[in-house]
Backbone:
């Protein structure tokens, strides 16, 4: 069997086996939201004249007047037909909300992950090559700093320095300057859409809006990536094949990059996958600080209001993304290390 | 490839045609930043947010709006004077049972249809019959049935009342009875949805000063001026050509934006930021005590030990008012403590709330607590919701410290907003802090809506026949002297029972660029952008 079919088969199998997990997540979130204290109907019936009648009205509108098992069956039916319900917080269908907000979160997360990888891997490699040296300690210090400063603190600090004091950064209010126009919607990723439209000025504006939040998020995840790169590099630098390669007199660059680093990448990939999924859900603070219209801040607002539909939709979305990311990591494993694909 | 080229061309064309609309100067645009979001375009939809109310008064007109008055040098809305909007004039019959409105003849909806009495009738019928928020509000002004609204001719409209009600006109000036384009709305109505609730939630059919250009819930709302609108005080359209309302969740960022001059106005900054910006003196800060709002420390009067008056009074004597006011609000507001009532009776009854004769006196508190049968104190919880944490957290800490001195052990509970509202609605919170707002801040309205019946807003769960009787009597009392006498009784009784402790009226800090003029504090605690202009 060729490499490709093995990978495809593996991916297919992995995907199929994750479906029960998705279903479980669905049911679990549904039940969890109902168990949580806090009645959305009461919360949203907060007009100055809100009485029992209004609460009942909202409850009926949300279908909460029915018994829970019936609600669950209806909900599953709705999901089956692609209807995730309606958010009371924004007043829009959840699917539409998620669709318009997911690209914002993904764009931010991808950029942050790229920045993090491009910083963390060289840092980790450098630290491993000069173990115990000043560089190693410096990397350790940077990592400790990145982890221990919460993202909203670093975010606010960056805003204070680059927007408020220096005036270099644009105002931290979302993805694009409010006075400029948006590109025609193609993918939802502004950088791609601006590029497609050939509007390079807009592209630059969108990129400059992205820089601060992306760096804030990257700061936070540089540490695990750099530490794992260092550990994996140490292991592979000390292994037999590297010793052999060195003794054969191969150029150091080839030894380090081709042999040591490629072997060290597996754990980095695993961590990167996990980091990506975590970032997507956990970047709520960054989204809040930079008024980024992403899915995480959307879900948090909904959660505080006990707004069931968006929270359930969000969890389902995250679970699906997790599945896809794991799948991708699996496939990348095969590319990084062909031995993995042999079951 | 050619598809891509075409796409680029189309995009280029689109952006070039879109440009003229945007080509207004920055000075003609007002950028407003807020932490909250608009969730519907129709204020009547159950679940509407306060910001949605604010928006609808820009896109829709009412028959009347409130006038304004000066309170300690700040402009605020005036419950007792009215400014005509769609009505050119109105007359109240001598017996107070009939209000006749003459409508403006030049008013048009955004689509060009003239506004007629039919539209007014349809809109008011909808507010009292459909499953909407208006119902509960309008009944406080004796407006309950469609039979009360009559079209006399195309521009004359009549409202009949079962009893002369002081709040009938005021209720027509709140956000719910906005006037819809009935022809347009009816064309979108369905058999299940005869009042076009679903359509109006996402679309506007109004005649207001602004037209929605783009609406992204939770992100931005952009409004464009309606050039034909002339219901303002000067018979001109609104001053700003464009209004951008942007949701910026982080309060510190909002403060930065306004300070840097990138945003023009914000009304929901943290008290510390507002105080700071005021001190720097670069911006205009208009700090208006919200005279229609009150922050309370409240007890569930049905729940032991708070069912004992002495316990409630002991706590009222043990609260560190001054420290709490400074820590929670940085002194930005109007305190409701520390008054002296000469004979133990309320000095006035025309208004509520009035400053209470309470002060921190731990010896007295201990005495009262002993009299209540708790010489060693007791343990309880003190709750507030996460949304209020900014002010409630420091306040709760001080309260806990002070009550510990008289032996009351307090456990602080910070609850998610939805959970807190649920518990309050079910009357399960013994001791907590909450705030109230009355759109129509007349004395009897406060008592009727916040102290009677098993409703959510009766925070103290008070069930006092005296208060109920006086409040209902005051509602229809035409003689202002008698009304004030009833109010005096009510205010005195409120203090004697101490169902909850009024603390203060927090300020609304409107922070704006120095060039912005005309700000008025409005009943719905939103900015009425039609008032504003740039120097």
Residues:
């Amino acid at each position: 069997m060729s490499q490709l079919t093995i990978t495809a088969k593996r991916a297919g199998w992995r995907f199929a086996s994750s479906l029960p997990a998705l279903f479980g997540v669905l049911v679990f979130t549904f039940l969890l939201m109902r168990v949580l204290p806090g009645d959305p109907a009461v919360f949203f019936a907060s007009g100055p004249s809100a009485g029992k009648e209004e609460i009942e009205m909202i409850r009926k509108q949300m279908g909460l007047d029915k018994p829970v098992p019936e609600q669950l069956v209806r909900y599953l039916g709705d999901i089956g037909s692609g209807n995730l319900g309606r958010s009371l917080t924004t007043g829009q269908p959840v699917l539409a909300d998620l669709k318009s907000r997911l690209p914002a979160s993904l764009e931010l997360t991808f950029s942050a992950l790229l920045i993090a990888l491009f910083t963390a891997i060289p840092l980790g490699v450098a630290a491993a090559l000069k173990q115990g040296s000043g560089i190693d300690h410096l990397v350790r210090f940077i990592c400790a700093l990145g982890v221990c400063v919460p993202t909203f603190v670093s975010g606010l600090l960056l805003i204070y320095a680059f927007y408020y004091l220096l005036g270099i950064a644009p105002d931290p209010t979302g993805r694009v300057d409010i006075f400029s126009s948006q590109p025609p919607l193609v993918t939802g990723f502004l950088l791609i859409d601006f590029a497609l439209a050939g509007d390079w000025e807009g592209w630059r504006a969108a990129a400059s809006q992205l820089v601060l939040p992306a760096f804030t998020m990257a700061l936070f995840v540089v540490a695990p990536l750099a530490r794992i790169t260092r550990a994996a590099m140490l292991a592979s630098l000390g292994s037999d094949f590297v010793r052999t390669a060195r003794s054969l007199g191969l150029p150091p660059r080839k030894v380090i990059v081709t042999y040591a680093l490629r072997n060290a990448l597996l754990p980095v990939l695993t961590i990167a996958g996990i980091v990506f999924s975590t970032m997507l859900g956990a970047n709520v603070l960054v989204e809040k600080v930079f008024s980024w219209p992403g899915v995480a801040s959307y879900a948090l607002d909904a959660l505080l209001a006990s707004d069931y539909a968006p929270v359930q939709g969000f969890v389902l979305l995250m679970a699906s993304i997790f599945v896809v990311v794991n799948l991708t990591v699996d496939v990348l494993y095969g590319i990084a290390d062909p031995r993995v694909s042999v079951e | 490839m050619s598809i891509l080229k075409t796409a680029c061309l189309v995009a280029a064309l689109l952006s070039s045609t879109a440009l003229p609309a945007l080509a207004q100067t920055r000075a003609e645009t007002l950028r407003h930043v807020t932490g909250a979001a608009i969730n519907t375009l129709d204020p009547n939809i159950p679940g509407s947010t306060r910001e949605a109310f604010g928006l609808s008064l820009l896109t829709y007109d009412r028959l009347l709006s409130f006038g304004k008055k000066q309170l300690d040098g700040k402009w605020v809305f005036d419950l007792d004077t009215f400014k005509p909007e769609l009505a050119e004039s109105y007359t109240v019959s001598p017996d107070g049972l009939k209000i006749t409105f003459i409508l403006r003849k030049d008013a048009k909806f955004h689509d060009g249809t003239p506004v007629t009495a039919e539209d007014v009738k349809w809109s008011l019928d909808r507010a009292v019959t459909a499953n909407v928020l208006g119902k509960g509000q309008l009944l406080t002004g004796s407006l309950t049935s469609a039979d009360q609204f009559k079209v006399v001719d195309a521009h004359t409209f009549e409202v009949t009342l079962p009893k002369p009600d002081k709040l009938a006109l005021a209720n027509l000036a709140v956000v719910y009875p906005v006037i819809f384009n009935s022809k347009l709305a009816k064309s979108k109505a369905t058999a299940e949805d005869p009042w076009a609730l679903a359509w109006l939630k996402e679309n506007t059919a109004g005649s207001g000063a602004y037209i929605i250009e783009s609406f992204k819930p939770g992100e931005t709302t952009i409004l464009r001026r309606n050039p034909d609108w002339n219901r303002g005080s000067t018979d001109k359209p609104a001053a700003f050509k464009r209004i951008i309302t942007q949701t910026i969740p982080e309060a510190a960022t909002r403060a930065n934006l306004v300070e840097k001059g990138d945003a023009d106005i914000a009304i929901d900054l943290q008290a510390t930021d507002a105080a700071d910006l005021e001190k720097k003196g670069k911006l205009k800060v208009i700090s208006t005590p919200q005279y229609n709002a009150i922050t309370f420390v409240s007890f569930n009067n049905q729940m032991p030990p708070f069912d004992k008056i002495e316990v409630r009074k002991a706590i009222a004597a043990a609260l560190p008012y001054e420290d709490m006011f400074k820590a929670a609000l940085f002194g930005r507001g109007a305190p409701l403590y520390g008054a002296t009532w000469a004979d133990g009776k309320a000095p006035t009854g025309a208004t509520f709330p009035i400053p209470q004769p309470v002060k921190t006196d731990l010896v007295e508190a201990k005495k009262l607590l002993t009299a209540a049968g708790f010489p060693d104190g007791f343990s309880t919880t003190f709750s507030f919701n996460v949304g209020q944490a900014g002010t409630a957290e420091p306040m709760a800490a001080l309260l806990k410290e002070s009550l510990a001195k008289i032996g009351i052990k307090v456990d602080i509970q910070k609850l998610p907003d939805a959970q807190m509202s649920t518990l309050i609605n079910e009357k399960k919170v013994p001791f907590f802090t909450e705030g109230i707002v009355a759109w129509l801040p007349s004395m009897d309205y406060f008592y009727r809506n916040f102290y009677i019946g098993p409703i959510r807003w009766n925070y103290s769960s008070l069930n006092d026949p005296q208060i109920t009787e006086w409040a209902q009597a005051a509602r229809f009392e035409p003689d202002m002297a008698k009304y004030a006498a009833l109010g005096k009784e009510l205010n005195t009784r409120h203090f004697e029972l101490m169902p909850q402790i009024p603390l203060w009226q927090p300020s609304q800090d409107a922070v704006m660029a120095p060039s912005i003029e005309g700000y008025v504090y409005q009943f719905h605690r939103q900015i009425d952008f039609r008032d504003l202009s740039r120097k």
Q: What stands out?
A: The mean pLDDT of chain A is 84. Chain A has 14 helices and no strands.
